[in-house]
């Protein structure tokens, strides 16, 4: 049994020795992220180092949430937590490494998005999110920066530092979650009981951002966020969103009329706009769920989602080569598109 | 990372724990220390008004810890306190660190007056919990997501107990109390949550003279029969602690009126837990564990 006794420590030591930190790639509020290598497999990994010493209350809640939720979630569209170990007084999370994220791609002006690209990214985002929600976990920080993209094109939801369980009636949650531009209206009004709707609203904003190539609702402050939102989507009425005025921080905001989405999203098809609209419904109870969204006609119509290997990638090494490859794909997609059009035309040709 | 299979042990493993092979404890000494540790966890938990589920998680962490470390090296008060603190975080029911420290110090010393935050005692508790938290996490292999028999039992009642009646609520409360009491034992190291839940329902039905084959029908048979032996073993294990307690008190379980057993030591003001659940309408109306809504898949 003495073997068992030291098992955990031994395991920790073995795990620690298997990873090497190569270089720092980012620094968050409570952690530093390194690019690293798993020595036994030569696999490239991301190591998130959480400083414990700096927290006088022991291990930080974000770290606990991240470890706990990622253990519960295993899905191709959710980042994989490979190992956890202590070194000195730091907690290290070993995560799979993905080189870029959706934010980088959106900002990279050399890349042209095809409708099929956006469709596949949305599909992967919603699949990952549906998995979280079915396990009763809210992400609470959905934004392009947290949707990582792998070399193979696969999209994975990352950063579960704010994630927690939900569905418990009467349990109070904090409204101080989600990056402002992606924050749902109920959170801005200070709701303490909310559900999957907050993640869906954020996905709606991401969807819009993919179509516009610019943040959809970029408020400068929490106050301005509501103003920006209502200017874009119209000020909600009590009949549109029952219960709105009884939310803790509810305030009356200037009345803006609702402008149809198609006036801003001129290039988007009817199904695209219909799905977007159902994600951006003010009343959280009527907002579409991830599961319903996955069954939306948008995902079954033309164009088909771009195959993983053809999705745009943010490649640092050889931008020229990437551009060429991409150009070929875009041309190909355009070709295929006209093929589809031709086929439709042929079907309609009764002679 | 591994699943919780590594935390289900054979009965003989409980005779070869670090506390016995290296710490010089006997089996029964360890058993008693474990029971005391969980009683401490529960009394701190009640003081902090933590949900039952948080206390159950803390107890599970506690039992797992002593499968890899000895009671001689780590005092059960220190580990119990750290388990409470960690569980309050993993179960999203955080309390102020200061309040946890004060409650632990108070309950460990069995006194009424809270300690001052400037006292040396406060600092010692604080440093101990912070230091031990790391060791605890490592020992648990960072497995923070745990399951309890409560989930399974409530799903069973919600989905299969056809008519929600006083009798079914009664049965549920009694089974619940049996699960609560089992926290003090090493049952969670021997059987998965599902088996413990079925064993608790089985005993509760016997206790209340309820025929589960009637009320739960085929569902019960389907659940019970495949694991018959295991459920029986787990049920015996649950009953053992009452038998021992009765022997000490010179009473036998059968003769004890409902309300005097089990779980008396769980209540702050000496009203037995069991009696509380059975007789107080307020308690029946607001189950300690209000998770029902989210459990149904």
UniProtKB/TrEMBL annotation, chain A:
The keyword Nucleotide-binding applies. Its EC number is 2.7.11.23. Residues 19-299 form the Protein kinase domain. InterPro entries: CDK (IPR050108), CDK7 (IPR037770), Kinase-like_dom_sf (IPR011009), Prot_kinase_dom (IPR000719), Protein_kinase_ATP_BS (IPR017441), Ser/Thr_kinase_AS (IPR008271). The active site is at 141 (proton acceptor). Belongs to the protein kinase superfamily. CMGC Ser/Thr protein kinase family. CDC2/CDKX subfamily. This is [RNA-polymerase]-subunit kinase. It comes from Entomortierella parvispora.
Automatic annotation (TrEMBL), chain B:
It comes from the Eukaryota. Residues 250-272 are annotated as: Disordered. Pfam families: Cyclin_C_2, Cyclin_N. CDD domains: CYCLIN_SpCG1C_ScCTK2-like_rpt2. Keywords: Cyclin. InterPro entries: Cyclin-like_dom, Cyclin-like_sf, Cyclin/Ssn8, Cyclin_C_2, Cyclin_N. Residues 39-138, 151-240 form the Cyclin-like domain. GO terms for biological process: regulation of transcription by RNA polymerase II. GO terms for molecular function: cyclin-dependent protein serine/threonine kinase regulator activity. Belongs to the cyclin family. This is Protein BUR2.
